[in-house]
Specification:
single chain, globular, 6-stranded mixed sheet, alpha/beta, about 210 residues, Maf protein
Length: about 210
C-alpha cells in the first residue's frame, strides 16, 4: 500500500487563477479547517502547462506554487474529453476557450466539431487530477472521472467552463443547472478530492 504524507493543517495555496475552480476547491476544503489562499491572491505567476497529461500539468502547477510561496499547494488540472473527438479537447480544454477564457466560444467549438463529423455519439467525460505538493518537492496526485453526455444549447449559469453543456450519467440536468452542493457531491473534482482527503487529510473537526 502506498504511503502518503499527511497535510499538517494551516495555510494551503490553491494553485489556480481560475476563480470558479478556486471557489469550488475552497468549498470542498472548508470542512477541514484549511486556510486556503489562491495563487492569484498571492500574485504567483501561472506556469506554462507543458505536460502531456492531466497529472503532469497538475503536478507542475502544484510544485511551482509550493516552491514560490513556501507553502503546501493544491493544484487541479481538469478538462472535458469527448469520445467522438478522440478525447479532445482534453488537456487543452482551457486553450479552446482562447486567451480571454471565453467558454461560450469553447462550447461552440466542441459542438461545431461534433457537427462537422456528422455523429450522434455525444458521450463525454470530465476528468480531474488533484496534486498536493510541498516546498521540498514531495507530491501526491489523485484522479477523478465522471462520465456523461453533451447537450446543445448549453443550459444553466451555476457552474463554469463546459458545465452548461455536460449532463452527468444518471441525471437529467447539466452541471450548469445544478446547485453547487449537488455538483460538489458527484463531480470529477469531488471524486478526486475524496481520494485526496482519505490519503492526506485528517478527519474534519467535529
Amino acid at each position: 500500500m502506498a504511503s502518503f504524507r499527511r497535510f499538517a493543517g494551516g495555510r494551503l495555496v490553491v494553485a489556480s487563477h481560475n476563480s470558479g475552480k478556486v471557489r469550488e476547491i475552497d468549498d470542498l476544503l472548508r470542512p477541514f479547517g484549511v486556510d486556503a489562499v489562491s495563487a492569484a491572491a498571492l500574485s504567483l505567476p501561472e506556469p506554462e502547462e507543458t505536460g502531456t497529461s492531466f497529472q503532469a500539468n497538475a503536478e507542475l502547477k502544484a510544485l511551482a506554487a509550493a516552491k514560490a510561496a513556501n507553502l503546501p499547494a493544491l493544484a487541479d488540472d481538469s478538462g472535458l474529453a469527448v469520445a467522438a473527438l478522440g478525447g479532445e479537447p482534453g488537456i487543452y480544454s482551457a486553450r479552446w476557450a482562447g486567451p480571454e477564457r471565453d467558454f461560450d466560444l469553447a462550447m461552440r467549438k466542441v459542438w461545431l466539431a461534433l457537427e462537422a463529423k456528422n455523429v450522434v455519439d455525444y458521450r463525454a467525460e470530465f476528468i480531474s487530477v488533484l496534486s498536493l505538493a510541498w516546498p521540498d518537492g514531495h507530491c501526491h496526485s489523485f484522479e477523478g472521472v465522471v462520465p456523461g453526455s453533451l447537450v446543445w444549447p448549453p443550459s444553466g449559469v451555476k457552474g463554469f467552463g463546459y458545465d452548461p453543456m455536460f449532463i452527468p450519467a444518471g441525471y437529467d440536468i447539466t452541471f450548469g443547472e445544478m446547485e453547487p452542493a449537488m455538483k460538489h457531491g458527484i463531480s470529477h473534482r469531488a471524486v478526486a478530492f475524496r481520494k485526496l482527503i482519505d490519503a492526506c487529510f485528517a478527519a474534519p473537526p467535529a
